[in-house]
Design goal:
682 residues; alpha/beta; sialyltransferase cstii, chain A; 2 domains; 10-stranded mixed sheet; globular
Length: 682
Amino acid sequence: MATNEEIALQDALINTYTYNLQFLSEYDNELFQRVHILSDAINSDLYKERYFLEFIKDDGEFDIFDNVKEEYLYSKDAKKWNNNAVRTCDFTHTNTISLLNPVVYDRNIVDLSSEKINLFNINKIKVLGELQNYKQIRNENVSNKNKKVKEINKFIFVGTLAARHIPRIIKKLNTVNHFVCEENLEIFRLSLFTCDYSLLARDGKSVVFSIMEDENIFIHKFNKFFNNFIQENTFYKYFSTNYNISNYFDRILNIVLEKDPFVFNYRLILDNIIKKSCNNFNKYNTLTFNENSNVFEHNILFLGAGPSLGQNIKWIKENQNKFIIVAMGATLKKLSQFDIKPDIITTLDPKEDTILSQFKNLSQENLNTSIKIASINTPSKVFELFKKDTSSVYTYEMLRSFQQNSMPIDGITIGEVTFKILLLLNAKNIYLLGLDLALNQKTGKTHDDEFKKQDKDFKIDTNQQANQSVLNKSFSLREDTLVVKGNLFPKVTTTRLFNLSIMGYNRSISLDKKPFQNIYNLSNDGAFIQETIPTNIKDVILDKKNINKKNLHKQLKEKLNNTSIKELDDISKTTINEEINRLDSIIEIINDIKSKKIKSYSQLKEDIRTIQNQIQYTDTQSSYLFELYLNFSFVINRYIDFVFNDRSMKNDTKDLKDTKYLWCEHLITIINLYKSHISTLV
């Protein structure tokens, strides 16, 4: 017979579990349903439990018994484990994921002279120079792990086990926004008996759960966590159970790297996207992307510059008249060597020299024959190459669209951008070749041999079974290798940079792919892309009849003309005028805040939040303002937060005053530049 203490303990466990279910049913109903289904399966003997919750009297704590391995996950010492977990979670920068790249933030102003001067790097140098102005007020080393912070906003719990440590850590650090991930739903269900998860979402706090979910859902959930108090993304404190945590750290790092503001900084958005887009808008046909954009009837062969391009070049030559060939600029040299004529050429790269070098490999005849689809911010010297036949030139808008009835294009590389365009133009059958997004699994090369931007050859480690956590060392987009699911092989080795592109392709498919669209991936050594059909090139069934390319180009131009505009309509111009007026109002608010006295960093954060709320109010499909501000804040505000979120710092009114004044003036300059650019459209 159970003792009174055992009965009380059982009642407490059931009450906690019931309360958690009620909480989840309201807060995350999808997770609630999954837990409920698992519980029903266990109670109906349809699911055999592997893990069991057990109270260890000698320890006075709960342990989890693994019935398969016949071992206790806490080794019957959960009390010591929990105490150690709480002790190691402190206010230092140890066990953090920082969003401040020390390669950038710990540089000295004299280091800027080492940057190569070209059109692309000028914007980077401008941003680094502007960042130096803040460092001259107060210069801090962002690599300082011993610095103690005043407050920790965002916390990640990697794995839960019984989760008894979680409430204690939250209480100790007074964290606000939380992310909880666990690889095993059964273990998470057990933690519902022992941890009150509602504590993570009370009194203005928030929590996002990602429990036993695939990478794409995990990315979606982490982005939700990222967007909660979006201004509080300077660093993430974390605690890991180190049990069955799989690839969580690599997933998190990949998302953080994708959001690196220096990949496309605010000066680049201003000068290379907005300014050039405004200058080029009325010169060429600008594509409109909406549900009625039906352009392609024939099969598409989309060619990238990956290793599989050269491996299959003879097949492409033999079958080029069976497809509409869409080729990114980097493939042109290889294609011209084999007399392969692309029907459509796409380009994105803002580096003028790179694009010019790609097109110089194409004969004038092929250049005039092919349809060119270029980003509207393409450099003018590149457009000069097309001046003999501007009717074959079509542009697309990046990040935002000044057209009221069109979707903008986004993507890090021309591959993702072209892929999104093909989906939005409702191509029915798309065959991918040279879009490997992985290394040549024999040579370690990232691209076809003709591609001049080949960075390096990687060594393929055939024994690398999984991705290694790199939180305790520096990590690199271009140097690190990862193991991912392969297209025709179970696993392939890729790089972090390629993995960002894989995430981009997957995102486009989830957002833009229609049920009638089929995507066949022909890359032998390539990475798997969700919802694509891995296909051996030998198994491709082709039409016996060739496409009449002359008639095809005429038809394509007619359809592209029908889904493009020459100039903005009156409604779009009115929207731009309204935004110009809002910009003037926001500048007035910034000037008003700039003139007020400041006594604390919390007051500065509140002032910044007031301005951000005004800017966020203008966030529409046609406005770049919030996009600009976010990038600006990710570069500048994060550094300011690192400096002043310091326990050892007394209120330094002068530094706060100087920082606030500089920040306000800096933001006004950016808004005025933006205003001057869009004013040319009306």
